[in-house]
Amino acid sequence: MKKFKWCLWVTGFLVILLTASSLNACSFGGETIPQNRTKEQYEFEKTFDPMFKFLEQEQKDFNGLETYKSRVYIKNGDEVKRYEIDLDITKADGKGDYRIQIGENKKTVPVSYSNGKLHYDSEIDPLFDEEILNLVVKRDVFDSLNVKRTLRTGTTELSEIIYQPENNSDLFQKLKSKYDLPEETTCQIRIDHSDKTNYGITIQLTSKEMSVKIGLTIIKKRG
Questions:
Q1: Do residues 133 and 169 touch, judged by C-beta distance below 8 A?
Q2: Class of domain 33-220 (CATH, top level)
Q3: Which segment of the chain is annotated as a signal peptide (predicted)?
């Protein structure tokens, strides 16, 4: 009887030990590593936290920033359109420029930014899309994506994550509708970090006939 109880105790101990080992395989430093990430990918992705936090903000907080850029590139057949906002946050009211290029035609007007709105010094058409200017991307969008490739270079201090293409997220559906893209469109997201202070995101939607690339860059103050 004692031998039987001893066997049960040993078996129970082994079960607990195996369970703990199993849990440790998917956790790191008290944090749970998602199933679609390796430990290395999970740790690398955390270095982009300043960008993730900025993207989640409904009302953008520019404290600690030097520069904010937002741009849209649209290629439909042979027609190419570029729209770009470049704001110097160190100046009052975030002054900067709005640049348009449609084919060979270019135009630039001074702008300022306050309370989530752009103010133009002169008339221009079309105005920059303020939904893109104040782009919101929740962290769970990134968490749901598989990592396709990571890059880290010591010479240029460039870090980059390219995620696998997708066509299911709410973000994708919203952008596909905004730009009237066809059903076969796919979306790929890339984030980058360089020079210790520069963070960027590129969202590219691609179909057979049309391509839309949305980019956003923040440059943080040094020190």
A1: no
A2: mainly beta
A3: 1-25
